[in-house]
Specification:
Blueprint lengths: L3 E4 L13 E4 L2 E4 L2 E2 L12 H18 L7 E8 L5 H11 L8 E6 L8 E8 L1
Parallel strand pairs: 5-6
Antiparallel strand pairs: 1-2, 2-3, 3-7, 4-7, 5-7
Length: 126
């Protein structure tokens, strides 16, 4: 029987009783990753800043679980406004510069919480 290990991330603002991330066996399964800066008191209303922060937060969660960017297998990106995909592409290429070594990715338009422009869902392994 696999043991579920809960991973929390310093400064993360999330829902009560929902962990930042779960490690199950070799899998890293974060809860939703937002574009909120854990060091800021207010969330930016700028979609470009939120999207960049979401990628920073993704890296922090995966690393807190003991993983690396190389262990990310798939990223699903939820955008409130699909025209912001260009910001996703910029962050994507900066975080994964090797075109021959990138995770799978899916970008979807979604209704998000008020003030949120982006959410990431990630599947990674240790």
């Amino acid at each position: 029987m696999m043991v579920r290990r809960i991973v929390e991330v310093d400064g993360r603002v999330g829902q009560p009783n929902i962990p930042a991330c779960v490690v199950l066996g070799n899998l890293i399964l974060p809860s939703v990753i937002s574009g909120r800066d854990p060091a800021a008191s207010e969330q930016s209303d700028d979609p470009e800043i939120q999207i960049a922060q979401a990628f920073v937060n993704m890296k922090a969660v995966v690393e807190a679980a003991g993983g690396t960017l190389d262990g990310i297998g798939k990223v699903t990106v939820y955008l409130k406004d699909f025209s912001h995909r260009r910001y996703v592409n910029e962050c994507w290429q900066a975080m994964f510069p090797d075109a021959d070594n990138r995770p799978a990715r899916h970008v979807l338009k979604a209704e998000l919480q008020p003030g949120d422009w982006v959410q990431l869902d990630v599947i990674a392994s240790l």
